[in-house]
Structure formats: C-alpha cells, structure tokens
Design goal:
456 residues; alpha/beta; 6-stranded parallel beta sheet; 16 helices; binds nicotinamide-adenine-dinucleotide; binds uridine-5'-diphosphate-glucuronic acid
Length: 456
C-alpha cells in the first residue's frame, strides 16, 4: 500500500521533530501535524527562532519542509479524514486519579484520539502508536475504534515507538540505532507494517528496521527506557560508595565501560535523571508487573526510582549541610532544563534541588539559557501546590527567589553554586576569573576545580 497522506496527532516534542524528518526524507508524502493546543500550532507556523520545541537543527529542517509537504493545523477532523496513515504522538502521563493513580499511564488522550479517528474516518486507515504505551494498548484502541467506527471502514493498528532523546532529536532521527515496528500477523496487519517500513527505508538501512509482533514492540519501548534509567541509578548508587572510599566515579565509569559487554554510554554519574519519560515509564512498568502478579519484578524496577530520589536528596543535603545555617545564604542554581540542549524542564532535578533550598531559607538565584522565567515559576508553583504551602509562606519564599538573565555577575557574591545542567556555557566559563571562591557543587561532573562533585 502506498501512503501519500499522513496525519500526526500531537505536535509536541515527538510529533513535531519526527514528522519534520519524515517530511524531509519523503517529499512525495504530505504530512499534517495537528493538535488541540492552537497556540502550539500557531508557534509551529511562526518564526523559526520561536518554535515550541528547542532542538538543535530542527529549525533548519522545518525551514525546508514547512509549507512544502509539512503542515501544522488545528483542523483535526479534516486532517484525519484525508489521511491513509495516522500517527498518535499524544502525551501519556502518569495517572493522577482513579485506578492506578501515581503509577499507571493515563491513556485518556490516546483514547480520545482513537474515538475521534473512528468517528471521522470514511476510508481505511493505518493507525500508528507513536506514544509510549503499556503493553496491550493496541487491544484497547481496537475496542474503542470498533465501537465508534462506520461499518465498512477497516483499521490496522501498528506500534512504532520513538527512541529519540531530547537535545539530539534530529541527529537521532537521521541515524536511528533501530526503528521498531510491531504489527499483528494478519494479512492486512503485515501490509500496514510494510507500508511503514517503506517510509523509513527512504533513509534508514533495512537491517536497522526491526519488525516484531505488536506486544513486543509496545513492551520494548518501556523496557529500553527502564534499562537506560537503571544504568544511571546503578552508577549513581556507586557514586555514593566512591565518596566514602576514595574511589573516583569517573575512573570507575571508565573502567566499567571499557568492558565491551557493558559499553561506555549512560554511565555518567549525576544529580539524578530527569525528563518526562524515565520516571513515568518505569512507574508504568512497575504497575504492569504488579497487575500481572509479578511483585518481585515490580520491586526491582521501583528501586531504580528510589535511587534517583536518593541521589537528588543527597546532592541537596550536601549543599545545605555545608553551612552552619543556610538561611539567607545566596545559592546560584545553574541550569533548569533536565539536560543540555533542550528547553524542557519536565521532572528536572533542578526543580527538586531549588525547591528544597528555598524551603530551607536560602536565597536562590536561578539561571538557564533557554527555559523561560514563566516555566521555572510554574515548575516551582506545582510543588508548592502539591505540598499545600500556604499563600503567606509562598510570599515569603518568593521574596527569596530570583530568576536571572545572566549568571556571571552573580558568581562572586554567591555563597554556593549548584551546577544542575551540563550546558556548554557553564563548562566553558573561565572559573579562574572567580575571585571570592563560593562553594561549587558540581552535579554533572563538568568542572575540574570544585568543592563537591558527585562521586569524587
Ligand atoms: P508533548 O506533551 O510534548 O506533546 C503531546 C501533544 O499532544 C500536546 O501538544 C497535546 O496538546 C497533544 N494532544 C493531547 N491530546 C490530544 C488530542 N486528543 N488531540 C490532539 N492533540 C492532543 O509530549 P511528547 O514529549 O511529545 O511525548 C509524546 C509521547 O511520546 C509520550 O507518550 C512520550 O512518552 C513519548 N516519547 C517522548 C519522547 C520525548 O523525548 N519527549 C521520546 C520518546 C517517546
Ligand atoms: C530518553 C531516552 O534516552 C530516549 O531513548 C527515549 O526515547 C526518551 O527518553 C523518551 O522515551 O522520552 P531523554 O529523556 O530525552 O531520552 O534524554 P536522555 O539523554 O536519556 O537523558 C535523560 C536523563 O538522564 C537526563 O537528565 C540526563 O542528564 C540523565 N543522564 C543521562 C545521566 O544522569 N547520566 C547519563 O549517563 C546519561
């Protein structure tokens, strides 16, 4: 089956960049990315330096394809109606209420999409699960679709999880380690898989396109994220032991990573992993394991998250306990994004560290080269709300909170500096210029000269 019209529901970190790259590599396919958030669609259609996703190289791809064969639109119904293949790239956050709250993935956005696709479609469609989903979600989608569809329309559901990392999304999409496509074994299921294989084959070598059954594909995505996060928690747990014994975590990582069977990636000790996915996907895995009665498996994966919390806590306590009393001490927090080269602060370790410093009475100055002041305030307010902090207390805290546009001139007057994101400008800054030495807490192991660096 030849696909020449694609619709992608969800114009976020995944939908925007992935469709931009498919559009670039497949000029014969017309792609429309739709979203319920009209402001987001307007930004995608706006100036290239204000796209809703900050991602190196993205603007250059968008420049080539926008208006050629890539379109951003708020007209969801017409775009679905017109397309042969529909990607679902909507968010799948952790549930906040109902059964599985705090653990299971909230599938309401995926379910809304399924219902909408069924109601609007008048011709056969291939539905591609791009969002990260619990294993066996395709079954649920099928149920919804068959309940709401017009009788004579056929739907094939296939799984094609996304493995890009933020900050390197375009590079990752150009040269994926693998593209995973799962489908059912029926004739039309396999035809749908082939249609998607054909699209990726335009730039991904055939041997890197892996086709599996649909459940393996859904579960492989959760498992990949869990394994990556597990490596970080493993190395972070060892960083605590290094500090007690005089071993050095960087030397340890190097020594471990040179074993071919282990490999060097994802062994960098840190203040803890952040981002929108590792935590939610592991919680989802824990929930699924419990659901299937595998409590020991659930406990194993939960420990990865516990060590991550332990590490963030350990780092924060290190700062606080370095002073007799941290009250009114000036702490400069460098970096708010959960990693360098992204404007995304979802679940960033910075939020936890800054929040606890503020609650301990420190004067906290925050700088990030990309994350906006509004976003930083919204991240902190979320925690204030969650902890039921009173308005009076919030006002007291806000008098001690400063979100700044440059960091250099604040360094000499700071009592402590916490480096949370490994932005190049922190790495490249000439720290020898610092006259009065504040205590430097290097959460990313990027400086040579430091007061405290994790694992050393
Ligand atoms: P996001 O929040 O950036 O984007 C999701 C978009 O979907 C939002 O703009 C939202 O308005 C839109 N949306 C929700 N319901 C909708 C509906 N019914 N109709 C139309 N639009 C709707 O999320 P994201 O970071 O792009 O993640 C999307 C999925 O991809 C998640 O399942 C995530 O786990 C997975 N994933 C994310 C990354 C990443 O780096 N962010 C990488 C791999 C996989
Ligand atoms: C991660 C995965 O790497 C992607 O493959 C996956 O598609 C994506 O999640 C997803 O499903 O959302 P991402 O979260 O964007 O990508 O970024 P990573 O590079 O994985 O970093 C995640 C966090 O781990 C960051 O806070 C980073 O600083 C931290 N990290 C990473 C470490 O602390 N140590 C390391 O060695 C590597």
């Amino acid at each position: 089956m030849k696909v020449n019209k694609i619709c992608c529901i969800g114009a976020g970190y995944v939908g925007g960049p992935t469709m931009a790259v498919i559009a670039l590599k497949c000029p014969e396919i017309q792609i429309t990315v739709v979203d319920v958030n009209k402001d987001k669609i307007n930004s995608w259609n706006g100036p290239l330096d204000q796209l809703p996703v900050f991602e190196p190289g993205l603007d250059q791809v968008i420049k080539q394809v926008r208006g050629r064969n890539l379109f951003f639109s708020a007209d969801i119904d017409n775009s679905i109606f017109d397309s042969q293949m529909i990607f679902m790239a909507v968010n799948t956050p952790t549930k906040t209420s109902g059964e599985g709250a705090g653990m299971a993935a909230d599938l309401k956005y995926v379910e809304e999409c399924a219902k909408k696709i069924a109601e609007v479609s008048r011709s056969d469609k291939i539905i591609v699960e791009k969002s990260t989903l619990p294993v066996r979600t395709a079954e649920k989608i099928k149920e919804i679709i068959y309940k709401h569809r017009s009788n004579d329309v056929n739907f094939d559901i296939i799984s094609n999880p996304e493995f890009l990392a933020e900050g390197t999304a375009i590079e990752d999409l150009f040269k994926s380690d693998r593209v995973l496509i799962g489908g059912d074994e029926s004739f039309s299921g396999q035809r749908a898989v082939s249609a998607l294989v054909e699209i990726y084959s335009k730039w991904i070598p055939k041997e890197k396109i892996l086709t599996t059954n649909i459940w393996s594909s859904e579960l492989a995505k959760l498992a990949s994220n869990a394994m990556l996060a597990q490596r970080i928690s493993s190395i972070n747990s060892l960083s605590a032991l290094c500090e007690k014994t005089g071993a050095n975590i960087e030397e340890l990582s190097r020594a471990i990573g040179m074993d071919n069977r282990i490999g060097p990636e994802f062994l960098k000790a840190s203040v803890g992993f952040g981002g929108s996915c590792f935590k939610k996907d592991i919680l989802n895995l824990v929930y699924l394991s419990k659901y299937y009665g595998l409590d020991d498996v659930a406990d194993y994966w939960l420990q990865v998250l516990k060590i991550n919390d332990y590490q963030k806590d350990r780092f924060t306590k290190k700062i606080i306990s370095s002073f007799k009393n941290i009250r009114d001490k000036k702490v400069l927090v460098l970096g708010w994004a959960f990693k360098a080269n992204t404007g995304d602060s979802r679940d960033s370790a910075a939020i936890y560290v800054a929040y606890n410093l503020i609650c301990s009475g420190a004067r906290v100055y925050i700088y990030d080269p990309v994350v906006s002041k509004a976003q930083i305030l919204s991240d902190l307010n979320f925690l204030f709300k969650e902890d039921n902090i009173s308005d009076v207390q919030k006002t007291i805290f806000s008098e001690k909170l400063f979100i700044i546009n440059s960091f250099e001139c604040e360094i000499n007057s700071s009592d402590a500096i916490a480096i949370i994101t490994e932005w190049d400008e922190f790495r490249d800054f000439d720290w020898n210029k610092v006259t009065k030495k504040p205590l430097i807490f290097d959460g990313r192991g990027i400086l040579k000269d430091f007061y405290y660096s994790i694992g050393k």
